[in-house]
Amino acid sequence: MYEIKFKENLRILRRDKNWTQSELAKMVGVDQRTISAWEQGVCEPNFSMLFKLCELFDETIEGLLT
Question: Which residues touch 6 (CB under 8 Å, ≥6 apart)?
């Protein structure tokens, strides 16, 4: 269930910042296809990536995952 909430939350947070997938990918050091895969629920970020995302969005891990 967490991957469903994560993918929705990531997409919403990214769009709220008016960032493209490519822009976010550069900020966290991954390929744009990785961001796309996260938002589609194909795969999930590891903990270090989750922490980077939390810092960028000024969000808690709990807030990002639920």
Answer: 38, 41, 44, 64, 65
What pLDDT is stored for residue 64 in this prediction? 92
Task: Give the tens place of pLDDT for each residue, 11-24.
Answer: 999 999 999 999 99
Helices (H), 1-66: 2-16, 21-28, 32-40, 47-57, 61-65
d(CA 48, CA 20): 21
Which residue, chain included where needed, has tokens 């895969």?
37
Contact 59, 13 (CB under 8 A): yes
Q: Which of 40, 39, 64 minimizes the C-alpha distance to 53?
A: 64
Residues in the chain: 66
Whether residue 3 is predicted with pLDDT greater than 60 in this model: the reply is no
